[in-house]
Amino acid sequence: MTKAPDEPPPGAAPSDAERLRAVPTERLRAVPTERLRAVPTGRFARFTRLGGLATGLAGQAVAGRAQAALTGRAPDMAALLLTPRNVTRITDRLSEMRGAAMKLGQLLSMETGDVLPPELADILARLRADADAMPPAQLKAVLAAAYGDGFRRLFRSFDTRPLAAASIGQVHRATAADGMRLALKLQYPGVRASIDSDLDNVAALIRWSGLWPRDLDIAPLMAEARRQLHEEADYAREGRYLSRFGALLADDPRFRVPEHRADLSTRDALAMSFEPSLPIEALAEAAPATRDAAAEALIALCLRELFEFRLMQTDPNFANYQWDAETGQIVLLDFGATREIPEALAEGHRRLLRAGLEGARSDILAELQAIGFLKPDISAPHREAIVDMAEMGFSALRGPPTFDFATSRLADDLRQRGQVIGQERELWHIPPADTLFLQRKIGGLYLLATRLGARVDLPRIARAFAG
Hints:
By secondary structure, this protein is α+β, with helices and mostly antiparallel strands.
């Protein structure tokens, strides 16, 4: 019997493509139909949903206070408000609303998790999961609003089952009239118009609960969430950054960026080429050398974004990276959270990187202060504690050539130290937005490299960009 040309020799190790073809198809499945739920549209509809939630929680809190008073106990606000049932109700309601309500929860959970009460942190963390998707009738209305009543003529086919659903919109597969396979991102109705009112209402709910730390100023995060949401809801803006990244990486064979179809994109719809690929986590099934190379490529890309492009996709969500096992390329998705990096910030981080590589403690302190990572009036002991944490992080760049993300305890050690520092109210401080988002991106890549079990020569990469 003749062996098929693509069949590996007997006893040969399977290729990466063969390994990844064996990844369970559940990872590629579209959003389940039982998670279809209409997005509330209009400010009044959205306000009443939040208002109803607040009223229900307030009623339970009043009843709880009365019961505590009868027994002579002091009421515990967290215990009264954040029962397991209420945690589910709050999470479910914010997920139903999507848009600013869900996005704010995602942002707060990532930037303040170490200082929030565990119950509130749990609610916000749950909002990082995929959102519910629109039912068919609402989807049809969105398509008609974006393209007109004749939208069917623009597509040979359109899959009504979304590939993904997030806080701002959901993604569908389609085939354009000219035969090009597309990924089409459609914005939820009413999201853009309700951003400001949603943020005000959710912030009021958080403040009213009494669970937000009084010493942690929520205003800077609210302002940043407002800016980010308006930017991410601008699909024309995202299309421009999609094209820019495509041009910047056109000569890098490690990456592939979808092609922007400007002729099929509108204010509420972003069309791009569909790139067949697997979730980046599927790389965990690939050969070690493949995993290592992918993690190294993504870490180096982050530093190129900071120091060369001065343009960074700041959302560390794993779903923004895909893997094409046939070509060995990483597919980059979702450029809504792209930010221009000011030259001063880039150079400040370059100086900080140099100081970290050299182990110059005083210079590390100076650069942390320069980029706004430290409060100006912080006490000397607390300043030293934060520099100690920075030194722990930089140790990975000064250590042995190969950093093993799978076995390193650095992330756990930093998290434990951060939790201790988070109990010190004097240290509660939200850095400037640009610094905050850069740190979030770096932290996300660390988690991804750990998930892949990668081994990377971090000192070599860092020295290449330190200048």
